[in-house]
């Protein structure tokens, strides 16, 4: 007789972050680049941009986040069966960043202590962390884990050319997540995760370049279009599996209590929410009243306008659409959804900047901390995740906040976890950006963390790290 054992929930048990100690203040940046500071503060939504020091890179940030996660949960290496690193700031064309991270952790836990562990480096621009989470969640769900946990760490340095429009959407940091059965924080919903994939040229970084080739406005529109497609697929699956029952006057967003969206910059989250809501509400009875408040018809792209290029090149349509979006974002209906479901997730982005793979998860972490601080009970709330990676792929999925979430969230304190920060001058920033400082010429000395000590001493390009006590 086949005995059916109900599947235990699997998801994120705890989160630890690492943010480098240097930052650029938006006013210094605006002055140096002769930009209106209001554009950065409100148009992009950035106040402080995290910058890596000369003795830091994505691998040591990842190891620092993992160490914090292990220490605060009293984990031993034998508890961990998989350690996945998702990044788009790869350091090597062949050697996975995981091995450097494991090497650093073994400086603390002992040589060979992680030898039993598996894991690979995952790449797909900013979405790869979501694939890593999904694959590791399923590794546990299908009972291949032998009682062990997975750590997924996302780590990136978002770096653009000096003087480019991407330069004010930089940032850096790592987020490590502990994935296990019966998690305290969030359990992922099953059979609803939805992915789309396409060959786009919105953003890519050919071999040997340290900064990407970016078609900025193209990437914004690609994000909106593909995230919407993934959301539509998610909605269909959520209805088919019975996870969500939609009444005729409801949209999928009514069944998602909190939203976490990929945040290349915080304003993008606001814009993306407007795009999704317009699509979801367009056929609902309430749209008529909203249109009356907006005071204009919703612009429709001309027939046959298939490609993203064609949409962007129709200046008249784009102008009208922008005007419509702005007016829509002024309505009470939009503001109510924004404030209650998304606003708290933007707080971290405003003071850190872009984390590429980590942006979505830093946003999620920010959201639960600041919603909890409002005194809201988060148990049982459904969080919808909208992940986007240029190139491109989008992923929509969801999870439910678990009853024991307070054990984790009540200890969260973003400012404390970021730690002491140093406001650097634009001159120092440009030296770091151009790689003009050696590791010995770091701007601040670090304690209780891993740092890069040399590149190439043991073999061309090989990196060595140490733990500073
Ligand atoms: N005060 C307030 N807001 C202002 C302003 C001012 N003085 N001047 C401009 N703005 C607003 C614009 O209206 C626009 O707002 P919107 O989002 O509501 O349309 C916003 O600032 C951005 O300005 P804009 O001129 O449209 O874009 P940009 O040339 O500065 O480029 C990006 C912005 C995001 C395209 C660019 O930074 C980039 O390429 N970043 C890297 C790629 C990226 O992050 N892509 C995201 C998808 S993954």
Helix fraction bin: 25-40%
What number of structural domains do the residues give? Answer: 1
CATH superfamily: Thiolase/Chalcone synthase
**What is the annotated CATH architecture?**
3-Layer(aba) Sandwich
Characterize the largest beta sheet: strand count, sense, and whether it forms a barrel.
10 strands, mixed
Q: What structural class do the secondary elements suggest?
A: alpha+beta
CATH class descriptor = Alpha Beta
User: Which percent range describes the beta-strand content?
Assistant: 15-25%
**Whole-Å distance between the termini?**
58 Å
- Tell me the number of helical segments per DSSP (H or I, 4 or more residues long): 16
User: Which regions are unreliable across 5 or more consecutive residues at pLDDT < 50?
Assistant: none
Which ligands does the model contain, each kind named once?
A: coenzyme A
Pfam families: HMG_CoA_synt_C, HMG_CoA_synt_N
InterPro entries: HMG_CoA_synt_C_dom (IPR013746), HMG_CoA_synth_N (IPR013528), Thiolase-like (IPR016039)
Keywords: Acyltransferase, Isoprene biosynthesis, Transferase
Domain Hydroxymethylglutaryl-coenzyme A synthase N-terminal: 8-180
Task: Break the fold down into its secondary structure elements and pairings.
Elements: E1 10-18, E2 22-25, H1 26-33, H2 37-44, E3 48-51, H3 58-72, E4 80-86, H4 97-109, E5 121-122, H5 128-141, E6 149-158, E7 171-181, E8 186-188, E9 194-197, E10 203-204, E11 213-214, H6 216-240, E12 258-261, H7 266-281, H8 287-294, H9 308-313, H10 315-329, H11 332-342, H12 346-352, H13 359-373, E13 382-389, E14 393-401, H14 406-409, H15 414-418, E15 422-423, H16 426-433, E16 449-455, E17 463-468
Parallel strand pairs: 2-15, 4-5, 4-6, 12-13
Antiparallel strand pairs: 1-7, 1-8, 2-3, 6-7, 8-14, 9-14, 10-11, 13-14, 16-17
The structure holds coenzyme A.
Residues 36, 38-39, 42-44, 165-166, 168-169, 214, 216-217, 219-220, 223, 264-265, 267-268, 271, 322, 388, 390 line the site of coenzyme A.
């Amino acid at each position: 007789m086949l005995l059916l054992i109900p599947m235990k929930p699997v998801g994120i048990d705890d989160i630890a972050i690492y943010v480098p100690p240097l930052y650029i203040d938006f006013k210094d940046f605006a002055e140096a680049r002769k930009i209106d500071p209001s554009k950065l503060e409100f148009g992009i939504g950035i106040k402080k941009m995290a910058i890596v020091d000369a003795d830091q890179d994505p691998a040591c940030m990842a190891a620092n986040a993992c160490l914090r996660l292990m220490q605060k949960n009293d984990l031993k290496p034998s508890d961990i069966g998989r350690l996945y690193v998702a990044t788009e700031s790869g350091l090597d064309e062949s050697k996975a960043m995981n091995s450097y991270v494991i090497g650093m952790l073994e400086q603390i836990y002992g040589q060979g202590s992680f030898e039993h562990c598996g894991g690979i480096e995952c790449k797909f621009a900013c979405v790869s962390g979501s694939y890593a989470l999904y694959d590791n969640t399923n590794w546990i769900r299908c009972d291949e884990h032998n009682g062990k946990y997975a750590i997924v760490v996302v780590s990136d340095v978002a770096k653009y050319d000096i003087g480019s429009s991407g330069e004010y959407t930089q940032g850096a940091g790592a987020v490590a997540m502990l994935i296990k059965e019966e998690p305290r924080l969030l359990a992922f919903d099953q059979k609803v995760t939805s992915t789309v994939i396409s060959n786009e040229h919105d953003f890519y970084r050919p071999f040997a370049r340290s900064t990407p080739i970016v078609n900025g406005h193209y990437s914004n529109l690609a994000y909106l279009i593909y995230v919407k497609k993934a959301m539509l697929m998610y909605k269909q699956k959520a209805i088919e599996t019975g996870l969500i029952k939609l009444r005729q006057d409801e949209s999928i967003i009514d069944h998602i209590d909190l939203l976490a969206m990929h945040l290349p910059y915080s304003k993008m989250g606001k814009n993306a929410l407007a795009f999704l809501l317009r699509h979801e509400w367009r056929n609902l009875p309430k749209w008529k009243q909203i249109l009356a408040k907006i005071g204009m018809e919703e612009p429709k792209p001309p027939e046959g306008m298939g490609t993203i290029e064609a949409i962007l090149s129709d200046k008249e349509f784009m102008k009208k659409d922008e005007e419509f979006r702005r007016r829509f974002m002024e309505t009470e209906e939009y503001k109510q959804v924004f404030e209650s479901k998304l606003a708290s997730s933007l707080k971290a982005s405003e003071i850190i900047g872009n984390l590429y793979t980590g942006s979505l998860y830093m946003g999620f972490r920010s959201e639960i901390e600041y919603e909890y601080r409002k005194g809201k009970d988060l148990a049982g709330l459904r969080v919808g995740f909208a992940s986007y990676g240029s190139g491109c792929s989008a992923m929509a999925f969801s999870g439910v906040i678990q009853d024991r979430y307070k054990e984790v969230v009540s200890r969260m304190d973003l400012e404390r976890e970021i730690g002491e920060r140093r406001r650097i001058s634009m001159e120092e920033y440009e030296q770091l950006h151009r790689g003009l400082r050696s590791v010995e010429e770091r701007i601040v000395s670090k304690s209780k963390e891993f740092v890069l000590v040399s590149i190439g001493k043991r073999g061309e390009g090989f990196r060595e790290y140490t733990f500073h006590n």
